[in-house]
Amino acid sequence: MSFEQFSLAPALLTALEKLHFSEPTPVQAQAIPVVQAGSDTYINAETGSGKTLSYLLPLFHVLRCELRAAQVLILAPTQELAIQIHRVACDLTQHSGLDIRSASLIGGAAIDRQLEKLKKKPHVIVGTPGRILELIDRGKLKLSELRTLVIEEADRLLADESLDPIKKVIRACPGRRQLVFVSATEQPKSKEVMEQLSPGLVRLHTEDVVVNPNIEHFYVVVDQRDKADTIRKLVHATKTKKAIIFTHRNETAENLAARLDHHKVAVADLHSTYDKEVRKQAMQNFRSGKATVMIASDVAARGLDIPGITHVFNLDIPSKGKDYLHRVGRTGRAGTHGVAVSVVIRPEVRLVKQFERDFGITIREVILREGEMLALDDVTSTQAESEH
Fold it and tell me: Percent of the chain having pLDDT more than 70?
């Protein structure tokens, strides 16, 4: 299968070649013709499956470059995800040579600069709901020519606390517009809302493999007070080249960052309490390799696609399976090998066993010994053989 079969503009095919995309992923093969036809679409596929290009390619194909107006609006729940999507759009434009203008309009950034961007009449706008709604309410963002509204991470943006702003943005769009919902997981509430907003929705699912088979899963049991130090030892023991450490609490993230920095580990802290500029610099340091470890919350890292992540560490294991999938899905991409390690206290082992049952995976217990991470079953087997 190749991208040529979708009759995309030659310039887009050239861009894909320059970006080293030789053939469509399963979700792209399903979604491109449906989105290109103008149908309301729900793209439900696992993390790292290529969902962003699955809608950007067909939407770029039908854009009218001569029309100086917003034609595509993409809403994302976090600043980082919006910036990432905008980067993909810019890459397509740069390598295709198409005269497509795009703009990133996110909360936390200077609104005056964003107003200057709008004066250039961008065709594609990527933003966070709050800032987009603010610009609409101020009469600065006109959507009269909008063709398509994309709602990224729909399972989150269609939840109760986010739904009202989303509905307000939809009401500001023309009556005849295409809706595209995108998500790695599906919640009953979001499914119900999508059906209300678009009764004729075309639903595309590619979750035959829920968990990437290229990821190895491990856990280590420690006392609560030893969690941070165990993470530090794991970073060294696994010789990680690029890792994300997930934690729930702001204070925990700050303490861990200080501990790792003390032990000469280059850290980028992306935890959600930091302001936009600090988070932007942290992300740049991590992407460039200046920092080898990034500390993040689920909110901060949701939907991010950062190449080369070798390890994911859970300092605080999530209580929900879908959050575990989002986290471990940061590694093992594009056919590479990935490692996920959860640091748990004894009562949290039940969550490990629950994830094993829910997703049909094996999460092996490990111990740290003399600077190495060793699978407990291997150690037990070796000891048994030596006794005989």
Answer: 94
Residue 137's contacts (CB-CB under 8 Å, 6 or more residues apart) are none
- Tracing tokens 């190495």 back to the chain, one arrives at 372
Beta bridge partners of 365: 219
Sign, CA dihedral 380-211-88-13, equals: positive
Q: 215-383: which CATH topology?
A: Rossmann fold (3.40.50)
How would residue 314 be classed by pLDDT, with cut points 50, 70 and 90? very high
φ/ψ region of 149 (left if φ > 0, alpha if ψ in -120 to 50, else beta) reads beta
Tell me: domain 3-205, CATH 2.60.40.10, correct?
no
Sequence spans of domains, the chain: 3-205, 215-383
Q: What is the DSSP string of 173-237?
A: S-SS-EEEEEESS--HHHHHHHHHH-TTPEEEE--SSSS-TTEEEEEEE--GGGHHHHHHHHHHH
Give the pLDDT of residue 385. 54
Q: What is the mean pLDDT of residues 333-342?
A: 88
Which pairing describes strands 372-375 and 363-369: parallel, antiparallel, or unpaired? antiparallel
**Nearest CA among 303, 327, 280 for reference residue 150:** 303
- Match 């509905």 to its residue by tokens: 167
The b-or-e profile of 47-72 (16+ CB within 10 A means b, else e) is bbbbbbbbbbbbbbbbbeeeeeebbb
Which positions ≥6 away from 166 have C-beta within 8 Å? 75, 129, 151, 157, 158
Q: Residue 222 and residue 251: Cα distance in Å, rounded?
A: 20
